[in-house]
Design goal:
The chain is mainly alpha-helical. It has helices spanning 64-78, 82-96, 101-113, 117-127, 137-149, 153-164, 176-188, 192-201, 203-208, 212-224, 232-241, 248-260, 264-281, 290-302, 306-318, 325-337, 341-355, 365-377, 381-394, 401-417, 421-435, 443-447, 462-467, 545-548, 562-571, 602-607; strands spanning 477-478, 493-494, 501-502, 519-523, 529-534, 555-557, 576-581, 595-601, 610-611. 50% of the residues lie in helices and 6% in strands. The chain is globular.
């Protein structure tokens, strides 16, 4: 038995008929070799020559390795590296066997974050299978949230019905946590119509857990994302009728809804109500905070109300309020919106001074860009140059290529407004060389259109006109038959001619359609446009149209100018924009009267296009 004491010598694997499942048995760390194995030392090769047997977990509970794996999944999810997540999960499964529910929930969350609801659905089905780790309320909540974000609302409601009827896997009970996942996704997209239907259907569950104020706060947030933000005030009235007391989050969201609607008077009235309630109750829970004043500053800036901005800034400084970086940035943005360059410079200097003691106050690149925009419009090239240099050394956070590009374009704009065309030409040459192209919808591109008053030109070349370039670097696109202020309905294609697809149809019946069109609108049973199907998303031939569409679709009204629609097509890289006619300003985009009347695609523009040849 001397050979049994040899350290770290693995016995030969058992024959198939002796093989047992390693899960969930807790095997000892050292096992005797099977009876048929030889006990002599000659039966063993040196340890370094033995092939390493596959390692398998000895305990079913989570190990530090699984916790590290969960953290790794979260990190990769932020980078949107979904393929890498599946690869590492597969490696961990081969090493440890069946993974736990926490890890697989993180994988589902990564799929939702990467907008791959199909993969999330497959992971959920694997978890609920006979060899899976099982699902819990968190699993259902994640999947429902993903289905809601993908506008696959019918599937989400079917899943909720299965939980309510007790036919869901594991016999889970319907809870508010599960419902809130879908409800929040609907409200984030501004789909008040379906959100109210969800609340009406499962009101008994939501109110049983005593979270009525949370529910109302979610509804208020949903109205701020809809076409009629002032509908949040009706929710506030309902809160008061129910005998509930609004909290600070309620008031801040209501103020934001008023600011978004342009009702700054109602926002100021809500602020006064917060202060009055604080004095009555002698409680600090409703004292306005930095978020409250930041929202108000944005509203005053939109209204160009310099007096109210100065008054608000003084009130913030004289109170015990902690002014963070976001509040300081809102001050500068509001002052710049009113044209108060001196006031913005005073606040900016205060930020720089305080940032020496508190690094959390150091401005982000956004603040430098705001200052640069103001000076570029006035042709102050020297200040724009200084701010550009300081942005790289004194700002906090990363400077993205987008920020860097806008900074270059602001230099070019300041140079043009300062009549330094040669400098603008050098900057433009560097931009084209670095980016291998140039976007006319960017700020730098729009700078060049200011010299011409001919409305036929959507894109003009101011730098070339001023400097007399003999060789065009740009080759602009010209739409000679388009007036940018014309309503979009003059150039749109009728919605019936776009031949929309019903959401209940499967792709195998319309697959040939995508050889001609790269994007096709989708309608529901009531004739409302609920999404767009793109050619690149059609990967499964038997999938229903509703499962691959993206929604809600980008929409504009018939009174929108064609210039604005061109900006949407180019800036946001939309392939199609739906045109709707709404009979009332108080209706949401999902109301029955907001029917689609037409579409505008890149093909519409190409028919009107003329390209100037490069010389």
């Amino acid at each position: 038995m001397h050979s049994l004491g040899l350290p770290f010598r693995a016995p030969p694997p058992p024959p198939p008929f002796l093989e047992v499942a390693p899960w969930p048995l807790n095997l000892p760390s050292r096992t005797l070799p099977p009876p048929h194995a030889s006990l002599s030392s000659s039966a063993y090769s040196p340890p370094r020559r033995l092939p390493k047997p596959p390692s398998k977990p000895t305990k079913p509970h989570p190990s530090p390795d699984l916790r590290r794996l969960t953290s790794r999944i979260v990190t990769l999810s932020r980078r949107r590296q979904l393929d890498q997540i599946f690869e590492e999960v597969e490696i961990a499964r081969r090493r440890y066997g069946r993974l736990n529910t926490i890890v697989m929930n993180a994988v589902m969350e990564a799929c939702i974050h990467c907008q791959d609801v199909g993969s999330a659905r497959r992971v959920f089905e694997e978890m609920s299978g006979p060899d899976g780790c099982g699902v819990d309320n968190v699993s259902f909540g994640i999947l429902l949230k993903g289905l809601g974000e993908a506008r696959r609302v019918d599937e989400a409601f079917q899943m909720l019905e299965s939980i309510d009827k007790g036919s869901a896997f594991g016999g889970l009970q319907l809870s508010a946590h599960v419902i809130y996942g879908l409800l929040n996704s609907l409200l984030e997209s501004g789909d008040i119509w379906r959100a109210n239907g969800l609340i009406a259907r499962y009101r008994f569950v939501l109110h049983e857990e005593g979270q009525s104020l949370l529910l109302y706060n979610l509804l208020i947030k949903g109205y701020t994302n809809s076409d009629f933000p002032l509908g949040a005030l009706a929710v506030r009235d309902e809160i008061l009728r129910q005998g509930l007391k609004p909290d600070k989050l309620t008031y801040n969201t209501l103020i934001f809804a008023c600011v978004k609607s342009g009702r700054i008077d109602a926002a100021v009235q809500l602020l006064a109500e917060m202060k009055e309630e604080t004095e009555k109750s002698s409680c600090c829970e409703l004292i306005p905070d930095a978020v409250t004043y930041t929202i108000l500053l944005k509203g005053f800036g939109n209204n160009k109300d310099l007096h109210s901005i100065i008054k608000t800034v003084e009130e913030m400084k004289t109170s015990d309020l902690f002014i963070d970086r976001t509040a300081y940035t809102a001050m500068v943005d509001a002052l710049l919106a009113c044209g108060s360059i001196k006031g913005a410079l005073c606040i900016f200097g205060e930020i720089v001074k305080r940032s020496g003691k508190d690094r959390n106050i150091r401005p982000k690149p956004h603040l430098y860009l705001s200052m640069m925009r103001a000076f570029a419009m006035r042709g102050n090239l020297d200040m724009v140059k200084r701010l550009n240099i300081r942005m790289w050394s004194d700002s906090v956070g990363s400077i993205s290529p987008l920020v860097q590009g806008e900074a270059d374009e602001l230099l070019m704009e300041a140079a043009i407004n300062d009549n330094q065309v040669d400098f603008a030409k050098d900057v433009l040459s560097k931009i084209i060389t670095r980016r291998q192209g140039f976007s006319w919808t960017s700020r730098g591109g729009m700078v060049f259109t200011t010299i011409f008053s001919i409305s036929d030109f959507v894109i003009a070349i101011k730098v070339e006109a001023l400097s007399g370039f003999t060789c065009s670097m740009l080759g602009p696109y010209i739409l000679p038959r388009v007036l940018v202020d014309d309503p979009v309905e003059k150039y749109m294609t009728a919605f019936d001619e776009a031949d929309p697809l019903p959401c209940s149809m499967t792709l195998n019946k319309v697959v040939m359609r995508f050889f001609k069109d790269s994007a096709v609108p989708v309608v529901d049973d009531w004739g409302s446009c609920v999404g767009i199907v793109y050619r690149n998303d059609c990967n499964e031939i038997d999938a229903p149209v509703s499962s691959v569409m993206r929604g809600p679709p980008p929409c504009v009204t018939t009174s929108t100018s064609i210039g604005r629609v061109i900006d949407l097509l180019l800036e946001r890289k939309y392939e199609i924009v739906v045109v709707v006619r709404s009979s009332s300003a108080y209706e949401t985009s999902y109301s029955s009267s907001s029917r689609p009347v037409g579409v505008v695609t890149l093909k519409n523009l190409f028919r009107l296009l003329r390209v100037t040849p490069k010389q």
